[in-house]
Amino acid sequence: MYELDFTPKRVCPRNIHVAVSDDGTTIENVEFTGGCNGNTKAVAKLVSGKPVDEIVALLAGNDCQGRGTSCADQLTIALQQAQEQARALA
Q: Cα 23 to the chain's mean position, in Å?
């Protein structure tokens, strides 16, 4: 398992901790620090165990109140970074 702490931009959470499988294909765990507690917990539960590529395709570009990004969009950036780094180590 590969783990990454990501500092999101222009959203409420201060940190997104992601864990992906060793080969970077599957989301093992997601934890948000800060943000809308109920929503971020729900997102984390919904994406756990899913393929990284599927979740990135589904959530990338999601906008929150005209910010040009959202918690879900920032999660996709974190997942892509974790996936790239896990694959580089494999």
A: 16
